[in-house]
Design a protein that fits this description.
This protein is an alpha/beta fold and about 300 residues long. It is built from twelve helices and nine strands. It binds phosphoric acid mono(formamide)ester and norvaline (NVA).
Length: about 300
């Protein structure tokens, strides 16, 4: 049984295997309809339980399609409807019941500690569907999307992140170490990644550069990533934070400092960090990026269930 909680804790070899499997599976089902099951029905009879303590559109739907296309089924729980969410049952007992009824568990929560606690009590795999520090399924899928569009390994590309030091960036930093790609981060000084993350990167001797100037960060980029400046449940003065990121807005001018064929990616939902012109423009591949989560999460599920070929 393998969990999928943080990219930094998963061997690079396994992450690459997941991407390769997703590529093969995506190719093989070109002619299949949305709910048709992959040949061999590899997760036939398996139940994936999903629990969201925060809002989600893409993650819940893409996991729904992922498990269905592998022959299994899913149910989504709202934490506030459980005894756990009302303070009436422990994580230990909840985890025992989830492990009794289900075969895998996707959790989106505001607490990294909660993911770890569930991991300790579950006897089924847990997948982090977004936590304060990490959004691993999103970022692994984004690596897949970059390689699909650019038709080369991500290690040969200059990746740029313009935005907040949030969960998605946390996972992108981990991915840059695992997949060995250069990562420029553009953000205001006050919103740089934590010392803990920077020290981890230094220890792993990888190619990450921080700029407090968006143009410097974007120069020569093959891919520019962004995400909402204000994340879900981000306890900040929203207006003030958006103002602090004003010089980091992704517009056509900023894109012009990157390579000519630079693409734009954004995990969605979006906010004022990107102009409509860029978001809906030719360089943007955000819809394919969202779709690819289905394909990559299928291979993540197979990895967790020990069925990755
Ligand atoms: N990108 C992403 O995780 O979207 P949701 O919050 O809608 O799941
Ligand atoms: N960083 C964002 C990602 C949403 C998918 C958030 O945590 O709200």
């Amino acid at each position: 049984m393998k969990h999928f909680i943080n990219l930094k804790d998963i061997p690079a070899k396994e992450l690459k295997k997941i991407i390769l499997d997703a590529k093969k599976r995506k190719n093989l089902r070109k002619k299949l309809n949305t709910l048709e099951v992959d040949k061999g029905s590899p997760l036939k009879g398996k139940l994936l339980i999903q629990m969201f303590e925060k809002s989600s559109l893409r993650t819940r739907l893409s996991f729904y399609l992922a498990i269905k296309q592998l022959g299994g089924g899913t149910i989504t729980l709202r934490s506030n409807e459980l005894h756990l969410g009302q303070g009436g049952e422990s994580i230990a007992d909840t985890a025992k019941i989830l492990s009794t009824y289900g075969d895998g568990f996707v959790l989106r929560t505001d607490s990294d500690k909660k993911v770890d606690k569930f991991k300790n009590y579950l006897s089924i795999p847990v997948i982090n569907g977004l936590s304060p520090s990490s959004h691993p399924t999103q970022v692994l899928s984004d690596v897949f999307t970059v390689e699909e569009i650019k038709k080369k390994p991500i290690s040969k590309l200059n990746i740029c992140w313009i935005g907040d030091s949030n969960n998605v960036l946390g996972s992108l930093i981990a991915a840059s170490v695992k997949f060995s790609f250069k990562l420029n981060i553009g953000c205001p000084k006050k919103f740089e990644p934590s010392i803990k993350i920077i020290n981890w990167v230094k220890k792993n001797n990888k190619k990450i550069f921080i700029f407090n100037n968006a143009i410097e960060a974007a120069k020569d980029a093959d891919v520019i990533f962004s995400d909402k400046v204000v994340s879900i449940n981000d306890k900040v003065n929203k207006k003030k934070k958006i103002e602090q990121f004003k010089k980091f807005k992704i517009d056509k001018k900023l894109m012009s400092y990157a390579k000519k064929d630079c693409i734009f990616l954004h995990c969605l939902p979006r906010g004022p960090e990107v102009t409509e012109e860029v978001f809906l423009g030719k360089k943007s591949h955000v819809w394919l990026q969202a779709l690819n989560r289905v394909h990559v999460q299928k291979s993540i599920l197979l990895y967790c269930f020990g069925k990755l070929r």
